[in-house]
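Quick start: what a row looks like.
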Amino acid sequence: MQGFGYDESEWDDDRGYLTRADLDRVSEDRPVVALRVDMHAASLNSVALSRLADALPDEDVRRSTATGEPTGVVVEDAAEVVRKRIAPGYDETRELVTAGLEYAARQGVTAVHDMVRNSRAPRVYRDLEAEGKLPTRVRINYWADHIESVIEVGLTTNAGSDRIQTGAIKTYTDGSIGARTAKLFEPYESDDPDPDDDGEWVVTPDELRSIVERADDAGLQVTAHAIGDAAIEEALSALEVTADPDRARHRIEHVELATDEQLERMAEAGIVASMQPNFHQWARDGGLYDQRLGTERRKRTNRFRRVLEAGVPLAFGSDCMPLDPLLGVHHAANAPTEAQRLSVTEALRAYTHGAAYAGFDEDRLGTVEVGTRADLVVLEASPWERADRIDEIDVAMTLVDGDVVFDGREG
């Protein structure tokens, strides 16, 4: 049994992550797995823990401080073992991808940048395109553990068709704030602070530099996940050596706790800040970021205004938490602090022209002008006229290349 997308920070009580005791109540005979919303943590019942015990890296298995027994919570590489074990086959993948693309079109999404790993999704995308059934544009970013295969078969950044292109080599550095695995300069907030509780390296700095060098030598863009300030420092140090906005256009995903100095260096190197304004759903008083980081650091997260002021290329996406650009625009326009807040126009531009630029597509996508593709979204109301309620606006119609792929007037 599988569950996806739980977020303990939204619950009324403070029980924290789901544990094996919680999931044993669902079943004591069948394996039960629940993946956290950020996919950096998973919860397993006793049966699932027993079946996967030999495959789970011990350092990523959380244990009770009192008994030393596994709590049922696993993170990062151990969570990846779980994700790989439950990955669907081609038929189910096609069903899920098709449903996801239809949902994306309903949300006004005309293009997605998919980070694929051990997935049949790339084949599904290409099969759908061949059948004339692909409703959106897709940029496929391959995980770093596929880099040799990508190079061997001759895939290069921007190669492909009008609808499907090869994008970047994707790599982690750290984990997530929600899983307490984002790598920080200072420890996580706690009643009894532990100096060693500052996150973890999912990919070590040395490994990261090797990935960047290998990808760059092959002419491939790199997009590096980095959330904590310590992780951003290492990602920036690795990428700025070979950064070239015209050729490589490297990206850092999330960039949540970037310092002013780091943003200045990103601007100088032309590194794209690929960020997610919907993450501000966790930035309210008493929310997840307060719980994990404390008030001062919470106010330093996702400073979109500061990113633009520094001259960093800014691209918005959703990270599928959830996949809803209007929710992201809403959070950007209504962010808690001035340094985090953008105008409606600036937020829309980051989702359109900024995202196109991150994919080398600024000359054909992201603007409405002669010579660009007719990828358009019609809204039921103006976000400028109801900036405090943008998340309640519905999409009336979505067009890709001039073709209507979603029509809210139907049904």
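That is the whole record. The CA atoms of residues 276 and 318 lie 5 Å apart. The chain has three domains: 2-85, 96-358, 376-407.
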